[in-house]
């Protein structure tokens, strides 16, 4: 059973770090103001405002910020400013035993999902594909906050992950399986193949999403995961959205799912509101879930935080 981080309460301290690409200081400040208006205390990492071209700062510096938040007993949640490029670079510099002994809520999406899955694999920690700092603003749909706080601030023993009204989940291969849920951003996982940090999907339910990639690239990446055996021993597959993905060769994202993923014969659900889309379901990486594609439901089977 994976380690549940302590529950997030009003008045808790949230640590802000930039683990990949830099973010404009004015945006960071505005989002921090939103967090403080919600009743949270905020601690900003030393390199959160840094800018070093493609990445915010060196990999050791970004890892240092992260580990300082882990070591600080006042910090209850670590909230990256954004994803972007370079999150994978920090992985060799993290102390996974220390992380396991000091569990925190760690949330995000995009390139952050490689970190979320590695923390589950190496530190046995439940993490959350959910909001980033950039999402704490007045234009964020209430659905996203409802999902986030249901995962991080309640002790519910069972939570059905539902799309917002008007956005229908679709089940293409029927079945009923249970297992830990893993996954996230497609590009990030393809980039980790052949490294010590590639995703472990054996016995797991795998969720995949992507953004701003043409469908010929999606085809290429999914084929790479299939050839790498990442769907061979998984229990089931949940395909999230491909947000702003352009059509190539008259072939849509759904066409690719039908041609590549459907023939694998695994219980298959599609169209889950995820990550880069306007609506973001909160996926607890490493938690036990039930995927019932006969009833079209995805249910978290355990509390994802603890007192």
UniProtKB/TrEMBL annotation:
UniProt keywords, alphabetically: Carboxypeptidase, Hydrolase, Protease, Serine protease
Residue ranges constituting the LD-carboxypeptidase N-terminal domain according to the UniProt record: 14-129
GO biological process terms held by the UniProt record: proteolysis
Gene Ontology molecular function terms on file: carboxypeptidase activity; serine-type peptidase activity
Keyword Hydrolase: yes
InterPro entries (alphabetical): Carboxypeptidase_A_C_sf (IPR027461), Class_I_gatase-like (IPR029062), LdcA_N (IPR027478), Peptidase_S66_N (IPR040449), Peptidase_S66C (IPR040921), S66_fam (IPR003507)
Top-rank taxon, per record: Bacteria
Catalytic residues (positions): 110, 209, 276
Assigned protein family: Belongs to the peptidase S66 family.
The protein, known as: LD-carboxypeptidase
Source organism per UniProt: Paenibacillus silvestris
